[in-house]
């Protein structure tokens, strides 16, 4: 979920734009959103083991793999292997159970917790709307 402006809320998973917190809450409790959440959970989200990140979909993953940060990380890994270092260690993501968002490390989790989307969901939960 992303807040594009104060009047526009977006569920990135479903690509649904809502004009109020109430309509967003109705969407989040709806059959279509829940089905998409379950499908995502079953199918799994694409991840980059090199950068230790998760992407929301394969298009995002494709963009990530073409990105400068990923290419730099690959070069760093290759250099490390040449110097006798270990390969990438796979880490489990940290899950925000409120938002169902996976974060690859504590720093990203803290950023998520401080973010606007998480704040909106906390407020919805506090009001008993979620």
From TrEMBL:
Molecular function GO labels: nucleic acid binding; zinc ion binding
InterPro entries: Matrin/U1-like-C_Znf_C2H2, Znf_C2H2_sf, Znf_C2H2_type
Pfam families (UniProt xref): zf-met
Domain C2H2-type: 9-33, 46-70, 94-118
Domain called U1-type: residue spans: 6-40, 43-77, 91-125
SMART domains per the UniProt record, alphabetical: ZnF_C2H2, ZnF_U1
The protein's name: C2H2-type domain-containing protein
